[in-house]
Amino acid sequence: TFDVSAPWLNRVIERKPRALLHAVDGVGFTIERGKTLALVGESGCGKSTVARLLVGLYEPTRGGLTFDGQDAHAAFKGKDARAMRRRIQMIFQDPYASLNPRWLVEDIIGEPLREHGLITDAAQLKKRVGELLQSVGLSPLDMAKYPHQFSGGQRQRISIARALATEPEFLVCDEPTSALDVSVQAQVLNIMKDLQRQRQLTYLFISHNLAVVRHVSDQVGVMYLGRLVELADKKVLFENPRHPYTRMLLDAIPKMHDTGRARTPVQGEVPNPLNPPPGCAFNPRCPYANDRCRTERPQLIDDGGTRVACHGVQEKRIPLVELAV
Ligand code: SF4
Ligand code: MG
């Protein structure tokens, strides 16, 4: 079997000069080959930090990361580093920033092929770049253009084609459609789903948008201030959300068939992730908070198939709500 797991129950800290930038703690999950795990949460919750850990850009200070049975962080540093970078690719939010504006598309997509020594012959390279463009619904003729000649959605397809060049097994997608118009988002998401089916790709999909997550994921992890607070199969999470924060996020999205109920905006401010409140970090915003919540940090515990970090859920004092969806 193939899995990607990040079973670190620990603290990951990225230090940059003068500032402590990122903290992720108590995050652990497994993604099966060919499936999508989505991580959701408001900005600053640590989603992108997890993404960067998975592609080896950050290193955990404790804990570990297993990729297909292999210690990924050891592999990122050792003689297997090149192979790991081939197998795990990342797609970023902003295709404007991630595509070199002075390069032709041919060179942008061809670069990983050259860098990894996969194709050196010029004619073969063109052929392969053409195939990659076709796989994302673009024309081989597009290779002779520059990024500014494309729309935002087309540019994101070019980044996907580039990410696919090394035939990766695992794609970490950090808000890949957030910069795009809603109609274009759906096109790009559908292409990603088709590619997943055709190539048995495994995705970690980062998004703040639950409507997008619902469209693409198999499992969903909800993050709050650097911690995973709920982890469940998509259907279970959307139909029976357990954590008060997950419910708050779900209440804030427009319903497909609006029942006339006013949607509730997400309440309150996200505290500073570097100085989270004691106990459950969500307690200042939670209608169910009690003294225990303000002092003791809840652990992520399995509760009928959903993993949830909430004293209220564990004490069964939060009403079970089946959302009409
Ligand atoms: Fe609310 Fe307490 Fe659960 Fe935190 S642990 S979400 S404060 S009920
Ligand atoms: Mg981010």
UniProtKB/TrEMBL annotation:
Swiss-Prot/TrEMBL keywords: ATP-binding, Cell membrane, Membrane, Nucleotide-binding, Transport
Keyword Cell membrane: yes
GO function terms (MF aspect): ATP binding; ATP hydrolysis activity
Signal peptide bounds: none
Domain (ABC transporter): residue spans on this chain: 1-250
UniProt cross-references to Gene3D superfamilies, sorted A to Z: P-loop containing nucleotide triphosphate hydrolases
SMART domains: AAA (SM00382)
Pfam family, one: ABC_tran
Phosphoprotein as UniProt keyword: no
Stored InterPro entries: AAA+_ATPase (IPR003593), ABC_transp_ATP-bind (IPR050319), ABC_transporter-like_ATP-bd (IPR003439), ABC_transporter-like_CS (IPR017871), Oligopep_ABC_C (IPR013563), P-loop_NTPase (IPR027417)
GO BP of this protein: peptide transport; transmembrane transport
UniProt family annotation: Belongs to the ABC transporter superfamily.
Cited PANTHER family: D,D-DIPEPTIDE TRANSPORT ATP-BINDING PROTEIN DDPF-RELATED (PTHR43776:SF7), TRANSPORT ATP-BINDING PROTEIN (PTHR43776)
Designated name of the protein: Oligopeptide/dipeptide ABC transporter, ATPase subunit
The species this protein was found in: Acidovorax ebreus (strain TPSY) (Diaphorobacter sp. (strain TPSY))
The organism's taxonomic lineage, starting at the top: Bacteria, Pseudomonadati, Pseudomonadota, Betaproteobacteria, Burkholderiales
